[in-house]
Amino acid sequence: MEAGNHTEVSEFLLLGLSEDPELQPLLFGVFLSMYLVTVLGNLLITLAIISDSHLHTPMYFFLSHLSFVDICFISTTVPKMLNIQKQNKDISYTGCLTQVYFFMVFAGMDGFLLTVMAYDRFVAICHPLHYMVIMNPRLCGFLVLMSWFIILSVSLFRILLMVRLTFCIGAEIPHFFCELAHVLKLACSDTLINNISLYVATALLCVFPLTGILFSYSQIVSSLMKISSAGGKYKAFSTFGSHLSAVSLYYGTSLGAYLSSSVTHSSHRSSIASVMYTVVTPMLNPFIYSLRNKDVKGALGRLLSQAVSCP
């Protein structure tokens, strides 16, 4: 293939999950259903938190932001995936870089919000008497705004590094979205700086949030061990059990996708693994935070009853 300046590359070709025409209608129906369930579930969680004054606490403030980010996260990949299943596999150069940028933003924000929520549970369980003083509205807002600032800045820097690259004309991406690592492999120019920034940013944006989560959990477990009654332990565990499930799902699927792409050279298996954290995780989060949470279930019930009673 001939190398050309990046301004000459008008589009890339996304190969999707399967090229079997018999599977296209099935994949389209499955991913459309998952997308609608994800958007509806997270939207209901957000509306329930906003409309119910009992849920105007730091924990649910962060949860509402997580639901919003999950809607945006899945919306960066699935709509284009649905077009791929309809044989519309091309994506413009600008559209590809835009997808890469927002994917990095929302994937990173998921990790940051899970870290902030872990800190919130740490304060609630380990310092319950000072919880409202420590987790005041100013601090909560600062933590969310700082998370947005960091991830937007880092993602913009990585995109600016990509703009300087030249790409081969007629390039094919063996994935269902423009994933950064796959796009870099298509570059005809030197990508050393881009690869270094990729590894450094991934390490920093994964290691620091995960370290914060593990530290919070270690302090929480230490506090739980000091509680003598089984009922007290269960009550304390129930306050962060949902968050533990969400963290395990997010980092478990992300790590699984990373290892599958590193261990196997099969792009098909790597794409399937990516489905887990880009589609399945945002879809399951509303169920994780609502099925065992009486406050959220009550708020959802009141929200739905109000919607039904409206003329």
Automatic annotation (TrEMBL):
One Pfam family, please name it: 7tm_4
Q: Membrane topology for this entry?
A: Multi-pass membrane protein
Q: Where in the cell is it found?
A: Cell membrane; Membrane
Give TM segment ranges. 26-50, 59-78, 98-119, 139-161, 196-215, 236-259, 271-291
UniProt keyword list = Cell membrane, G-protein coupled receptor, Membrane, Olfaction, Receptor, Sensory transduction, Transducer, Transmembrane, Transmembrane helix
| Start and end residues of each G-protein coupled receptors family 1 profile domain | 41-289
The record, for CDD domains, names:
7tmA_OR7-like (cd15234)
Function description: Putative odorant or sperm cell receptor.
Task: State the family it belongs to.
Answer: Belongs to the G-protein coupled receptor 1 family.
Protein name, UniProt field? Olfactory receptor
Q: Which organism is it from?
A: Ceratotherium simum simum (Southern white rhinoceros)
The gene it comes from is LOC101391852
